[in-house]
What does this fold into?
Amino acid sequence: MEAWISAVLSGILLGLAYGLAAIGLNLIWGVMNVINLSHGAFIALGMFASYFIFKFAGISPFISVFLVLAVGVVLGMIAYFLALHRVILAPELSTLLATYSLSLIIIGLGTFFFTTNPRAIDVGLGSVKVFGAYIPKEKILVGIYSLIFTLLLYLFLYKTWTGKAIRAVSMNITAAKFMGVNTTFILSLAFGIGIALAMVAGALIASVFPFTILTGGVYELKSFVICVLGGLGSPLGALVGGLIMGLLENVLTLKIQVGYVPFLEFLILVIILLVKPTGIMGKE
Amino acid sequence: MKKGYSLFWLIPLLVAISAYPVVTRSVIARESVFLILMYVTLAASLNIILGYTGYVSFGHIVFYGIGGYTAFYLMYKFGVHLIPAMLAGGVASALVALAVGEAVLRLRGAIFAIATIGVNEAIKSLVTNLAFLGGATGLFFNFKIYRSYGGAAKAIWFAYYLMAAVTIVTVVVSYFIKNSKFGLGLFSIREDEDAAAVLGVDTKRFKSLAYAFSAFFPGLVGAIFFFKAGNIEPDDAFHLIKSIEMIFMVMLGGYGTVSGPVIGAVIYERLKGILLVNPLFKNLHMAIAGFVLLLIVLFAPGGIVGLLRERFKKLRGVLE
Amino acid sequence: MKRLVAFLVGVSFLMLGLTTSFAKDKIVIGFTMSQTGKLNAESAEQYRGLLLWQKWVNSQGGIYVKALKKKLPVKFVYYDDESSKDRVQQLYVRLISKDKADFLISPYSSGLTASAAVIAEQYGKIMMATGAASDSIFNKGYMHVFQIYTPASRYLTGALDLLKAVDPKAKKVAIVYEQSNFAKAVATAAKKYAEKHGFKVVLFESYAKGTTDFTSFLNKIAAKRPDAIIGGGHFADGETFARQIFEQRIKVKLVSLLVAPAVPKFAEIGKAALYVTAPSQWEPKAKYTEASAKKLGISWYGPTASWFVKTYEKEYKEAPGYHAAGGFIAGLVLQKAIEDAGCLDAEKVRKALEKMDIMTFYGRIKFETGKYYGRQIGHDMVYLQWQEKGGKLVKEVVWPEHAASARLVYPYYKKY
It folds into this structure.
């Protein structure tokens, strides 16, 4: 029984972290219909940002994350104009490759400057005992931040004018343009926020798990599954998908071999795409 | 549709490239040309589903892996000769493509792309867990296996000849597909699938067939490559990055054309070969590749062939 | 006429051959390393070890070759293999035929080494395999590949011996390993050994590469209550695993993980590192000296461990791990073999390697000449444990007893 409780608990916390990692991908997917293949590279960038700030300025990732958020928006907007703007209306192949080339550039330079040496941030907050299971406080904080960022994103999308403009663009770009929305700015902002969220996820996850410049790729692949699980394009869906995934990895593995988990995850990905491409949470 | 003449120069070109190491007996040239031919085959076969049909198969490397594992297992376990093992590898890949295609080809656009990544990762993970395929350790040949080909040196030459033959067959097949009614159907799917269906194209069957064709040849390539490498493991057989390299080559040359993937693969291989051994760039080749890819996507979506066709209208019959 | 041409061609070939052999003024050693990709970190450390050897040997004027009656300096030629099998063969062919490498060093990792071995064997070039612990390369009929590392089959078995020696009642073992060529080979061998020696393997499972969350294993493990957890894979996963065992306060008596704890950086996880043990190919504190060579009746070769550690730290501003030592020793063993053979002929050097039985700062070096030709049989793993000394975390060698620098602190959960 104890094993089950702690499996569920750790599953939820891991799921929240996964959800956070996927949310940026899903936002960009939903608004721009672009699958951002540089998502993982930006997660890795966020990890390194948080690592260097912690190492040289001694600032905890849970504080510096807001700086990372701001830098991420700017970086993302620059990336949009450099790599995406010209091809935003072209077929999927172009945007897939444009974002992939961004990833190649980032990982290539990252390997050059940082090597693939693993790094870790040890904030050292210790553990708390919940229902007989010890859980590191960093993990709980990441979970809380994940909820906060999702909430903030929702408030932004539904309560602010800019947020509403983003939603308008995602529903019908021509109509939005007609209504006087500066679609170029809105698209770049949406991409910027998506990138920023990826970096935020990286920055926070770095406080729990070690990483290298290549780690982002793992989260990117998982993010695909999560987005599809929760529903393409819906930020809340990412959180739900993340939770399902986290629980799957922790609870299911009490009964089956852990080695088969990736197989199951990708099998689920393919099956859901076939049965209900809008995701479990998605509308018809 | 007017038939193009690209085969008249493509085949002599490929024969000349393949013959160069044989004539000079240069093993360095052989190793380079082997990779060039391998990439040409991979790119040309991917082009059938990606370029002709417009389906972005992002995890296409899965067929290379399936072919590689099938053939390797047959040679390793039962001592089957490379040629039948290779054919079995190709057939296995094509069959998997038919089965998987039955499902995933219903998807379109980016979702299809993600699904193919999922298929690749799922199969990779499955193979990693299968004990009879060596799991994560993979399978290793005994060096003796090359003896039946007259020693390792001869075996590698044999693999080379086989690769050259497969490459030429692939390019010829891709030419005939493009210039057939079947190819026309594929292009109509690429332009507008719903319209094509209305006009009476059996889109489902066409797509499945195109997918099977584009899976068959990577299966052969995988068989030859891992025969030469002497061992196979999941990470190398289902290497997602290689999948993306294939797309890169098709885009570089010009997608949907017969000569594009050939040109793209040759240039890509040469470029990478030079960057890798260049002391100045060898640490940065990945970033440079990304930069070049970005330039192509942004400014020359038709690739090199597209650019040439625009510039020199007369060449259109030759460059198709 | 025809004969004359043939004669001239023959002579000119002979001349060419002669001039090159006369002009032999250096020994070229070729290898690939992983400057990019997933193996970059380990491969770079191995390379630094090699580089140090090159400096060391060239500062003495090079390797003495008896047949030429002079010392030849060592030159390295190397390329990036991108941690991928694609280009390994192409690059090794290039090293042999274009760069005229006299000898080869393997890439890092067993998978890449297996591909390079095909080429080395085909051209009859000696290849020192370092950073490649797999056994499966060595029963494949290769006659030119020689292993520096203790192979996977003997990697973790010592941890079980250690457990048996310190606590004969501890019987339950959980084995958790990464899905990689190396970790799987090690784990499978450990399982076999454990079952043969009366242990009960209560959990035998693997995880995908790149895994960073082990809570699912730990929940399972907590339910099965094993005495020891052994396994792991590479650095990042091993470090997290150790961290999470501590965070979740798993009550286990012995933790022994591959790779990660052997790397000095492991100390960055603080108290989670304490009392973790690990197999290591080599540790700065392992006591391999001239005296131990004498005891075994074999000869000592090369610099001392303290020289190596000091010079390495001065050169690279960090402590050397066993990958670095492995790189250095690969060069050193090759040097010894060339000196013994007295020439650069691959077959003669091969014979010298067959006969070799020496002690170095890295331990004993001796190669198998039977079914697993070229496999390392002289060298033994040492087992280290992270202990606290004066408020600082230090690595101490705790097993085998004759190489130990401290006693094992047992059980692991003492620290909670």
In short: Chain C has twelve helices and 17 strands. Residues 107 and 150 of chain C are 17 Å apart (CA to CA). Residues 154-280+381-415 of chain C form a domain with the Rossmann fold fold (CATH 3.40.50.2300).
